Amino acid sequence: xxxxxxxxxxxxVSYLEGDFVLRSGKRSKYYLDKYLFETDxxxxxxxxxxMAGMIRxxxxxxxxxxxxxxxxxxxxxxxxxxxxELGIPFLIVRKNAKEYGTAKGMEGLWRPGERVAVVEDIxxxxxxxxxxxxxxxxxxxxxxxxxxxxxxxxxxxxNAAASKVCLHPLFTSSELGIxxx
Length: 181
Description:
The chain is α/β, with parallel strands linked by helices. It has a single domain, classed as Rossmann fold (3-Layer(aba) Sandwich), CATH 3.40.50. The chain is built from six helices and eight strands, in the order αββααβαβββαβαβ. It has a six-stranded mixed beta sheet, sandwiched between helices. The protein is globular.
C-alpha cells in the first residue's frame, strides 16, 4: 500500500469530527482516534511498514538505535510492531512507575548510554512524547529522534526541537488534508 492509500485508510478508520479536548488541554473540532487505527490490523500493518521504512532510512544515513521506546498506552502496539519488523528491542515507558511488583517506570532491558528512538502515535504539543524522552534520558539513555504517525502541526515539532529531539512524522495533518482550526 502506498503512502497516499495509507493516509486515506488512516482517515477512514480513525478521523472523527465533533468537540474534543486533547491531552494538551486544547479543544479541537477533529480527533484522530489512535486506538481505532492501532487496533485495526490492516491500518496497523500499513503504518508499521511505513514507519519501519522511515526508521530504516535514518539507520541508512548513519543513525544508530539500540532500542525503540513507546510511551504507554497508545504507542505500545506501534512499538511492538516496529520491534518485530526491524528486529530492534523496545521499551515501554510508563506514565507513572508501578506501585507494586518491580515498581518500574520503564519495562524492558537497557543499558545506560544506549541510543533510543521514541515511537508515538499522535503528536500535538509533544507533551507525552517529551515526558517519555525525559524519563529515558534520566535513565541514562540517548534520545535524538521521535517518530510519529501524525503530527497535528500544533507545536510538537518546535517543542521537540527545543528538547533537542528531531520529530519525524509519517504524516502531518496538512498532508492528510485536515484543515487547521
